Amino acid sequence: MKYVETRDFEKVDEVKRDVLALYRNAIRKYADNQETKVAAIFEEIPGQLQKHEKKFVLSALHSEARMRVSWLV
Per-residue b/e over 42-51, b at no fewer than 16 CB within 10 Å? Predict the structure, then answer.
């Protein structure tokens, strides 16, 4: 939307950076004692999605990385 309004990629980049900052702040606020792990996962997402498979592999962060899904229930 910002590009349509302004035709300025710098303005678009500012909006993108603001959104990323909001996500990082939410991680700090809600990740409790897992902030480092959650932040590492968040930062890894773009690089992994650039790959051909287009899926996120947790073990790419660390060979012993695992996820417990009990918190989802």
Answer: eebeeebeee
